[in-house]
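Blinded run. Sample ID left blank on purpose so nobody reads anything into the name before looking at the predicted structure. Input follows.
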Amino acid sequence: MTVPPPGPAGTGADDTGLLPKVVARRRRHLLALLGLVAVLSAAGLVLGLLSWAPEPADPPRALTAAESQRLAAVRVTNYRDLRAGVQVTFGAGAARTELVGWVDWSRPLLYVDVGGPGAGSERGLLQATPTVVVIRHDPTATPTAARPPLVPPADRWRLHELPAGSALRPVLDLLFDLAADRPDPAGAPPVADARWVAREDVEAGPVDVFEAPLPGRAAAGASPPAPARYWVDADARLHRLTARLAAAGPVTVTVNRPDRPTLRPVDALGGRPGLPRALTTAEQARLQRLPERLRARGGATVTLTAPVDPRTNLRGTGWLSWTARTAYLAVTDLRTPERRTLLRRGADATVRATVTAEGDPEKPAPPPLPPPAGAGWTSERAGTDALTRLVDATLAAGRSTPRGTAVRLREDSVADRAVDVVELRGGGDQLRYWIDRDGLLRRVELRTRPGVWAQLDLTPGSVPALPAPTPAHAPSGRPSR
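Blinded prediction complete.
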């Protein structure tokens, strides 16, 4: 007889398979109960969400005294912070324009890339002061504005005239008007008629949103009655501004305050800043010997870049002789790239002729030698235009030490040569000499009427003979030369 193995009492039902079925049935009941609880919880949550309403926002109100002081300090804070990154959009649809770059409120100077479908003739790089605009137009640039290079390209900048009704002009005014060296007086924009409208969070942290008029020149371009909105933090720092300007439409300015590199103005705007000081003894001696050294070198090949006025941007190349006191250049006005002006400046007279030309107007070819006899030369007693004054100042550097007070602005470089930039003040035209370590002149700059700088770059060395052409007619009382 077989004896079953020992085991716990009451386990005989395992032999029939009943216990697993009971366990499975209880598990199914438990899962069904849990599912029902989940459904009821979800339904309760949905009902709760449908019945929930956010707490009402605080209504707009007048500013407190502390908020008025903070809003009044916004422009001073911008000025004291010196610089900031900016991203601007204005206009809508096909007229939308974008600016990306930086503003230096302390100089003041704006440097941006201009893009968007409405960029037009300003597409490319732009630098501006409150009074002048220079552009480096690039019709092939990407449609969307991007951060410009920190060191701007040296070539192809031209003084630009914004057309009447330009949408860009009031936007530039607005950016410059966001800074001031002293608080706004009581009762003046932006604090006048201001009110608090909201409390928000931006990337830099919490801000108050104020509704207030625009300050300065920007206020004249605003479309009443819609005021601007300012996003201002607890330290009176502006982070965003929205407004509507008559010529530009809706405008949004985003200020990136940590992005604040030192900006370098292009040469037409004076070049990078320096620390003006009196000349050292060695620098003064170098300036005194300059005429003698230039006559000993004889002459130089010259390259002209002259923003004369908003409609006249000149490019040229040629030669000058300090020993013969003569200069001969081919000059292009970028408005008429198919023409060249041949200019010969002699010891006491100037003759000009206009000829047709081809090639890149930004890099005109040297003038023909000998000067063409049938070019229709005309003579003039003396030139008072910026080009003639710049050429005369460069020739005069080989005759005598310049008049006025000489101030060293900075060290710089041109054609891979280190130079001292010396500004001559109080002697008539405002001039700058770029003098290399060998005591030779490498550039002469003349400040033109709009407040920008024209340059004549020089490569000292031997030059060809520069004979005088025969003018078609001479001025009254003076023979032809």
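Unblinding after everyone has recorded impressions. Helices lie at 18-51, 65-72, 74-81, 168-177, 216-220, 281-297, 386-396.
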